[in-house]
Structure formats: structure tokens, C-alpha cells
Amino acid sequence: MSTHAAGLNKLDMQSTALVLVDMQNDFIHPLGAYARGGAGSAMIASLTKRLAPLANAVRDAGGWVVSTHFTLVPGKGGEPFISPHLKELRPFLGRGDFAPGGWGHDLVDDLKPADLSVEKVAFSAFYMSRLEWILRKAGIETLVFTGIVTNGGVASTVRDAHARDFGCVVLDDGCAAHGQDIHDTAIEALRPVASVSTCVGFLKRVQP
Q1: What's the mean pLDDT in 21-34?
Q2: How far apart, in whole angstroms, are the C-alpha atoms of residue 26 and residue 108?
Q3: Mean per-residue pLDDT for 40-54?
Q4: Which residues of 176-190 are buried (b: 16+ CB within 10 A; e: fewer)?
Q5: Torsions phi, psi for 78 (to 5 deg)
Q6: Residue 164: what pLDDT?
Q7: Which CATH number applies to 3-206?
Q8: What pTM was computed for the model?
Q9: pLDDT tens across 120-158, in order?
């Protein structure tokens, strides 16, 4: 299915997934790692209430909710492996943050439950993960992207999904970044590989 078709045709919800990119407590919650480190964002925090009705509508329509989880894999002694660029950007990250199975690693409560979840270790949720395998097993052909950050995890995952011939839709107001200009630039750059819609526009296609 082409991204053009995914944007214009009526969605087959049985083969459609709402993808919640990195909507995790450590990113979003006031007690999470980013808030504790002074890197919280009101624009990002506001996403949860906007996305909750979408997730519920997708569930009611028989679609899939897929959650990606940025992960800091613990090494010896529990110290996480952190890429140099991330350590420089977010020096406050440390032991226990984004740890597999931990509260901070988990999807925020208001968006639960996810039908499928996958750990990721880089911007793209496809990189060295099982994401493509579970999407194919579930018969999912169209991915509707939301989450954070627009210019990072969202953009990288959308581009990798496009390269794998998934139909891609990005919900402009269903994504956020650390700044409106950054977000807007990223959305424009995704138009060649994805259809761009809004949360309201998507809901109209899902609800009877």
C-alpha cells in the first residue's frame, strides 16, 4: 500500500495501527527522568490528553495500538549504555532511567493498554528491533504515527516504515518536539514519505 493510498482511502482498521512513539513516563510524567532533569516540555506533556481519545477509538474500531519504548539497556552494575551524543545532550540520564520493565520505561497510564509494544535503542523503532516482525505477523499495513519527538523518533521511524512499504500517516497535532519551529520543519520534511493529517481528521475516518 502506498502512503498516498493510506492517506486518501477509507482505513481498514483490521490492518491499521496507531503508533504511539515513546509516550513513556520518563519522557512525559512530571516525576519522570526528563522532568527531573529539567528537560520537560509543556508541548510534549499536552499530547497525552489529545491522543487518549484516538487510542480508544482505534480499539473500539478493531484496530491496533502499538507502543514504542526508548530503552537504556543496563550494563554491569546496572549502569546503562548511553550513546555519546545522548549523554552530551542529556547528561542527567543515569541508572534506572528508561530501564526495561521499570515505571519510567512504561507507557503513560492514560494511553494504556497497547496491543503490541517494542523496545528501541535508537531514534528509529525499526533499528535492531522486532517491530517489523510483529507488524507483519499482525497483518498491519498502515501505520498512523503520533508521539515524540517529531524530528527524532517519529521522523526516523516514519522513514524506515516507508522504506519497508508500510502505508504511513502522520498526525501533525498528534506529535510534538522541543519547539514549534522544530516540529513544523520535521512535519514538512515528512510529506514526501507520508500523508499528513490531524487528530480530528483521523477520528472522522475511524468513528462510524
Answers
A1: 97
A2: 9
A3: 95
A4: bbbeeebbeebbeeb
A5: 90, -5
A6: 98
A7: 3.40.50.850
A8: 0.94
A9: 999 999 999 999 999 999 999 999 999 999 999 999 999
